[in-house]
Design brief:
449 residues, alpha/beta, TIM Barrel, eight-stranded parallel β-sheet, two-stranded antiparallel ribbon, 19 helices, binds zinc ion
Length: 449
């Protein structure tokens, strides 16, 4: 039980003095249920939850539809693969980000790898769960993974394999859609896709019944030309049967509000990618989209969700927090433009949310809810799991699936996300099972290859 102390700070207490902790995957004993609760200060204990439900969730076959490569590099994996990297090489284009990490965590990356210092890597790479740290801090934790993947194709292959095999063996994930950007200055897009494909293919051979697919992430701050280049590369690759069957989704990731090359604050304009994404769809590529996770005003967040569907043709939306947070909670606050949320505006926003929910239900659009990630990146909106809109979405009839977003950065896995949902919203096993089947019903891959 050496790992117990590590997670005591989550303070997830169960009735009868039982302690709920999640350490790795297999840690179970008589009175202990595995669960890892980020931002748990206001989290009500899941008194109803039995070890039976926990075991049932763990053994049920699951589909993971929203998980990124760079945020799922485990500290153990990085320690093994990062030894040959010169962490002090200033010619690495994002060297400043590595220096920032060294300063923020008071570490020397060179020393960490020299001393095999796994504990320090964990501290850097895993969101600690005590409190949200905002999107910026969260994304910084992925920079070590980005450095590894900068120019190392064998690491890409091994990572894809590691994520798939671990998800399968530890969480019974039998269907996986893995997301990654295929733009790395020193690697060709087709090389990255081939490496990921091979890693996933090996995993399928190793894990009976496992099926996998690939989703390419464009980045919201890209120009239309950059998005078009990615789509062109995908379409060219998809002329090969092996990719046509597996390279099946496109996404826009990254901050929804960012600084443009002129240094001005800019929100993502879905029209910018309308043509490239339409061409992708014409080739049979499906669109999934990060939207409504981060916004200057709630109106912007709702608009981003609607535009994902109307402009880009998204069939699933990642995060969609704007759709669920209570507009009433914004009373007496100002938005990112300095505009006041008055009573009339709040009423209009409530109506707009209801309209959008109806619209998404009519269109059959699915929400990918990432509970841990949302508490970590959006602590003001989602200070704890039970303030997440998941419960509201389910009661409104939206089709929702749970996803991890980033296994390492969010310090979670798919079983844990379901346990969090069950605990925070008092979901019954049939409700949990329904969300799990939503995952298989919403997969992008429609064949048996
Ligand atoms: Zn994501």
């Amino acid at each position: 039980m050496s790992g117990t102390a590590k997670v005591l700070h989550y303070r997830a207490q169960f009735s009868g003095g039982r302690l709920a902790v999640r350490i790795g995957t297999q840690f179970q004993s008589r009175n202990i249920i595995n669960i890892n609760v980020p931002g748990s200060k206001n989290w009500r204990s899941a008194r109803f939850m039995s070890k039976g439900i926990s075991a049932e969730i763990e053994k049920t076959e699951k589909a993971e539809l929203h998980v990124h490569t760079s945020g799922s590099v485990t500290p153990e994996f990085l320690l093994k693969w990062g030894k040959d990297i010169n962490w002090a090489d200033p010619s690495y284009p994002d060297f400043a980000k590595l220096k920032y990490i060294e300063k923020k965590f008071s570490v020397s990356l060179t020393e960490i790898f020299r001393k095999d210092d796994l504990a320090s890597l964990k501290r850097i790479m895993e969101s600690n769960g005590d409190k949200g740290e905002g999107l910026e801090g969260y994304l910084a934790r992925m920079d070590l993974g980005h450095r590894l993947l900068h120019n190392n194709l064998p690491a890409w292959r091994a990572l894809a394999n590691d994520i798939a095999v671990n998800s399968y063996t530890k969480n019974n994930v039998t269907y996986l859609e893995l997301r990654f950007p295929m733009i790395k200055p020193l690697l060709k897009p087709e090389e990255i896709v081939e490496a990921v494909y091979k890693g996933l293919f090996d995993a399928e051979l190793e894990c009976p019944g496992l099926k996998t697919a690939m989703i390419i992430c464009t980045i919201k701050m890209f120009s239309m030309e950059q998005a078009q280049n990615i789509v062109d590369a995908m379409i060219a690759l998809r002329k090969q049967a092996k990719y046509r069957a597996r390279l099946i989704g496109i996404d826009t990731a990254g901050p929804e509000v960012y600084r443009n090359p002129q240094g001005e604050l800019e929100k993502f304009d879905h029209e910018k990618f309308k043509i490239p994404f339409a061409l992708a769809r014409a080739d049979g590529i499906k669109v999934v989209n990060h939207a409504g996770e981060q916004f200057l005003s709630l109106e912007d967040g709702l608009e981003a969700i609607r535009n994902s569907v109307e402009v880009l043709g998204a069939v699933r939306i990642g995060h969609a927090l704007a759709l669920g947070i209570d507009p009433g909670s914004l009373q007496d606050k100002t938005d990112g433009y300095g505009k006041y949320y008055g009573e009339d505006r709040i009423r209009a926003l409530q109506a707009a949310q209801e309209d959008l929910i109806k619209f998404l239900i009519e269109r059959g659009v699915v929400i990918e809810a990432c509970l841990s990630s949302n508490t970590q990146t959006q602590p003001e909106m989602i200070p704890a799991i039970d303030s997440h809109p998941l419960g509201k979405w389910i009661s409104k009839g939206l089709k929702v699936v749970l996803a991890t977003d980033n296994l390492t950065t969010s310090h979670t896995d798919l079983t844990n996300e379901h346990l969090l949902a069950a605990g925070a919203f008092g979901l019954s096993m049939p409700q949990i099972t329904k969300m799990i089947s939503n995952g298989f019903e919403s997969k992008l891959k429609n064949n048996n290859i």
